[in-house]
Specification:
The chain has about 200 residues and is an alpha+beta fold. The chain is built from three helices and eight strands. The protein has an eight-stranded mixed β-sheet, with helices on both faces. It binds coenzyme A.
């Protein structure tokens, strides 16, 4: 069975993400990994279950922090989830929430330990910035992870805060800093290629 295209894995409304239009030598080269995104209203229970399982493993279990990861925003209208899947497993994810006034917040950026340093989080961040389009993206990151986000175009936007005992740095990615590049003219089967994030 072609897992990534089965209805259960990719229900109507959820789009498989094509290669982002921003080239980067560090992007992963794993044919068996697929990238998806969907709004809170589009993803199904199985998708949400796998996203929350991954986040609990990374942010709660691995850190031994008795912190409730679900905060109510995963199912808000205007929330978009992006994730990577391999062999039926969700291996990386991030979340965009609508902060009002045309601003998006990126959060819950994580990759399963066994799949780190293969470019999956970078791929999802790049996709998220394309989804964001002209909207600024803000994020509060672990202070120790700030350099990782800086290398992906984010800039500090204020001081540090301490959340759950961990120092956080507020950052932003402004649209002017993004590189616009044309999408490829044709896709699989030489049919006209339309990026999943292109406005209808
Ligand atoms: C931070 C985190 C999300 C990064 O995920 P990741 O999928 O490993 O990220 P990437 O692989 O895209 O990038 C990691 C590094 O590997 C490098 N890399 C990418 N592909 C690579 C490859 N094929 N071989 C070797 N290195 C590679 C990247 O260049 C990057 O290097 P950099 O630190 O110099 O920028 C992950 O470590 C994680 O989940 N941490 C715990 C949760 C967390 O801290 N989240 C951040 C919230 S503030």
């Amino acid at each position: 069975m072609d897992v990534k295209n089965s209805p259960e894995r990719c229900p109507a409304g959820i789009s498989e993400l094509p290669e982002p239009p921003i080239g980067d030598a560090t992007l992963p080269d794993m044919d068996d990994v697929s990238y998806f995104y969907g709004t809170a209203g589009e993803i199904n229970a199985a998708n949400l279950y796998r996203l929350l399982t991954l986040r609990s493993r990374v942010f709660v279990v691995a850190r031994r922090q008795p912190w409730l990861d679900p905060d109510g925003r995963d199912i808000e209208y205007g929330t978009t989830h992006l994730w990577a899947e391999r062999a039926g497993e969700t291996i990386a994810t991030l979340r965009l929430t609508d902060e009002g006034d045309g601003v998006l917040r990126m959060a819950r950026v994580c990759t399963l330990l066994a799949y780190r340093r293969q470019g999956h989080a970078t791929m999802l961040v790049r996709h998220a910035l394309v989804v964001a389009g002209a909207r600024p993206v803000i994020t509060d990151v672990y202070a120790r992870s700030a350099d990782w986000f800086t290398r992906r175009g984010f800039q500090p936007r204020g001081g540090r805060t301490v959340v759950d005992g961990e120092a956080h740095t507020s950052m932003q990615h402004v649209p002017a800093a993004r590189h616009a590049a044309p999408a490829p003219a044709a896709g699989p089967g030489d049919t006209a290629y339309r990026p999943a994030w292109a406005p209808v």
